[in-house]
Amino acid sequence: MSLINQQRIRIASTAVGSRDPWAGFCPCCQWGGTFLSWLDAMTWAALHARQDHCRFCIDTQMPAGREDVLGELYERCPVCTIPCADCDGLAVYPANYNTPTELVDDLAVLRLTPIFCDGCHGVAAVIPLDPEVLA
Ligand SMILES: [Zn+2]
Ligand SMILES: [Zn+2]
Ligand SMILES: [Zn+2]
């Protein structure tokens, strides 16, 4: 994970003749600086990734395994985000769906429907569409 984070930090040479010929910039933090040498820039990048980036997730999304109905799941990273007040961070995000509507349509085929969390819009539960039939 730390490798991924380090790769996101860009290191580039600045204008020729500059006093600090190397520039490092982290797009996700909108932060960077200029350095005397490439090694200085790399050291800054490694330090920044270690100190300021979460080791457990990518953009606060953390893989949360897979589920038969929902497929690949992500959850909000519990390490670097504050848990959702409504679901206490229990809601998951199916990776295969771009919109909640797609998920609702797919689950409807299986006579299931997702319950979305009001706070974080993740999927808090999946329930049968017609529980009286199964009961
Ligand atoms: Zn950063
Ligand atoms: Zn995190
Ligand atoms: Zn929530």
What are the salient characteristics of this protein?
2 domains, alpha+beta, binds zinc ion, 4 helices, three-stranded antiparallel sheet, 8 strands, single chain, 135 residues, 30% strand, disordered N terminus
* Proportion of residues in extended strands: 25-35%
Into which percent range does the helicity of residues fall?
A: 25-40%
User: What is the number of helical segments per DSSP (H or I, 4+ residues)?
Assistant: 4
Query: In angstroms, what is the radius of gyration?
Result: 21 Å
How far apart lie the N and C ends? 45 Å
* Mean pLDDT across every amino acid position: 87
Number of domains: 2
Which sequence of SSEs, written as H and E, runs from N to C?
HEEEHEEEHEEH
What's the total count of β strands? 8
Strand adjacency order, main sheet = 1-2-3
**Biggest sheet details:** 3 strands, antiparallel
Uncertain spans, ≥5 residues at pLDDT below 50? 1-6
Give the bound compounds.
zinc ion
What's the short version?
The protein has 135 residues and is α+β, with helices and mostly antiparallel strands.
Describe the fold and architecture.
With 135 residues, the chain is an alpha+beta fold. The chain has two domains: 2-52, no CATH class; 61-134, no CATH class. It contains four helices and eight strands, in the order αβββαβββαββα. It has helices at 2-8, 38-52, 100-109, 131-134; strands at residues 10-13, 22-26, 31-35, 61-67, 71-76, 92-94, 112-116, 123-128. Strands 1-2-3 form a three-stranded antiparallel beta sheet. Strands 4-5-6 form a three-stranded antiparallel beta sheet, with no helix packed on it. Strand 4 and strand 5 (71-76) form a beta hairpin. It is elongated and about 75 Å long. The termini are far apart. Bound molecules: zinc ion (ZN) (3 copies). One zinc ion is lined by residues 54, 56-57, 60, 77, 79-80.
